Amino acid sequence: MPPCTLYHYGSHSKPIHLRPQQCHFSLLIPCRRGDVSDAWSLLCHMRGSDFSPTQYTLSGLLSCELLSICQGMQLQALSIKSGLFDADAFVGTALLGLFGRHGCLDEAFIAFEDMVHKSLVTWNIMLLILARNGFVGDCQNLFRDLVRTGVALSEGSFVAVLSGLVDPEQDLEYSAMIHGLMTKCGFDGDIALVNCLINVYVKCKAMFSAQRLFQEVPAENVVSWNTIIDALVKSGRPQVALEMFVNMSRRGLVPSQATFVAVIDSCASLKNFVCGESIHAKVIRNGFESDVVVGTALVDFYAKSDNMMCSHKCFNQIEEKNIVSWNALMVGYSNECSSMPIMLLRQMLQLGHLVNEFSFSASLKSSSVLNTRQLHGLLIKMGYESHEYVLSSLVMAYSRNGLIIEALSFVKEVSNSLPLVPSNIIAGIYNRTCQYYETVKFLSLLESPDTVSWNLVISACARSNNYNEVLELFNHMHVAHIQPDNYTFMSILCVCTKLCRLDLGSSLHGLIMKTNLYNWDTYICNALIDMYGKCGNIDSSVKVFEEMTDKNIITWTALITALGLNGYPHEALKRFKNMESFRLKPDALALRAVLSACRYGGLVSEAMEIFKQMGTAYGIQPELDHYHCIVDLLAKRGEIEEAEKIITSMPFPPNANIWRSFLEGSKRQTEKSNCILDAMH
């Protein structure tokens, strides 16, 4: 074969005569540095000199990140024509990588099926392509086929199949099966693979499995700790995340940027300012205070701790600020209702930084009428007027400044049909200002109302005492296949309580259990306890209470009220004492509930003891309702003089209810005395 003559390649201006081996080697040099243009020109020269590329040459070219799909298809045709595609797995595997980079799933699958020779790398790349494009089922089927071939699996095989698992309901069982296969193949000690599996368990919300696997890791690294700490933060367990961070430090592991971001977010969630400052000191010692990700987390933490001076200081220490950093600072200032967000937005624009919808939203949150109108003009100029998130913030800004009509007209201007989120915001404002008719009328214009829209209409009808309409709306919502949420159920349960509809309330309880809200929503459970108690089914009230895992002061108050209403004053007192044993300090409503239970049951001494301890033991000064319970109880028991002493000792004038109870008690006592006198004569 004659030498190949090349012209103007690289820095040469004279013809270059290369032998075949040299020519192939020269082609690989631009491929390795990613210079597709030079590599392609050299290939064209080679083809013009009747040189055929080898599988190494083609695979090198196909592996170039900047190679276009069109060029790749030409190389595929060349490999098929030259027989290199069927010769071994090199060219086909590189071709799969190209298709994967460009998202050409069909082409990748066809090429994979056409390959005569497949290496383990070939299988792994195809698995990864399927997983990254969301074809989890196809990825699992292909992995099964790979296992059946009997080829020894690699770390890449497991990483590829695990990377697509994110669904808690469908993928958890499969993850556990892969875990077993990993152990069988001897990969249970592979730290990178174990980290990947921990991450999958976390995505599938299997925190117990993730923590157990983490504890079994023979030599965990920073990635393992970061994964588990971040998972604890995102699953609502920031305190445990901080404890893990302390354990990590004790083991001598150096935290990374990801570690600090997770624990700073934990401190923000807990509003633990002291702990956050301590971690900030560790950030400085580790030299991360100028890092944009860690610095932004600190900006957000101090902003949520209402310390904008420290937040701004952390912002200034970030060397290369990005749009997230600016937005975090702007959001912090917007919560203070200051003009700083507007000033920061102007500064961003002056420095040539890009702004986004979050920048506008933060600026609009605390803007005055004048600034709102100025921002309105700017966002129109920048093409954000039809962006729903910005539109919602703009509507809120106009409404906050008392310009609801202007907000409404703007919403109608930007769209032929009413946008959903801004419409819900305007309806919510109508609802909060007791304009219930306007709420219902406005939302009736929506073409496709969502759950929030239905909730607002139901709430408006309930607040205007149109209870039958509420029940009809809930039925229409069910027919329209709109999924109710906890706010929906709360509204309907309140209506059931008002109407004393035990049958409907019980049916609603069953529906709540089907939607999985029952097990975790304390507010719904509290509403169920109240509904059953006021509808006379005390057994169901107690059952709901006992099944709850997260009880708050409202929960105990609801149960004590239910027991008192249904004639169980002694049990109500017992539960009140149990509540105190759980270190829950009674509030004014809890004390009123237990006093009411004593009032219904005629327990004078018990009620007086609690009443006298209100200021000293509970730190709560008696209010009108508390005085009414005591006066009514004493009056009904005929202790008029004691009732009169209570009234005269009140620090404020008695209301009509107190006087009514006292006078009715006095009247009964007088009638009783007259009856006794008549009997004596």
What is the average per-residue confidence, as pLDDT, rounded to a whole number? 82
**Uncertain residue ranges:** 1-18
Judged by helices, strands and strand pairing, the structural class is: mainly alpha
Number of strands: 2
- Cα Rg: 36 Å
Shape summary: elongated
Query: How far apart are the first and last residues' alpha carbons, in Å?
Result: 145 Å
How would you write the strand order of the largest sheet?
Answer: 1-2
Report the major sheet: 2 strands, antiparallel
Please indicate the percent range of residues in DSSP E strands (runs of 2 or more).
under 5%
* Total helical segments: 40
Characterise the protein shown here.
GO terms for molecular function: RNA binding. Keywords: Repeat. Pfam families: PPR, PPR_2. InterPro entries: PPR_At4g14850-like_plant (IPR046960), PPR_rpt (IPR002885), TPR-like_helical_dom_sf (IPR011990). This is Pentatricopeptide repeat-containing protein At3g58590 isoform X2. The longest helix has 25 residues. 72% of the residues lie in helices and 1% in strands. It is mainly α. The N terminus is likely disordered. The protein is elongated and about 125 Å long. The chain contains 40 helices and two strands. It starts with a strand and ends with a helix. α4 packs antiparallel against α6. Strands 1-2 form a two-stranded antiparallel ribbon.
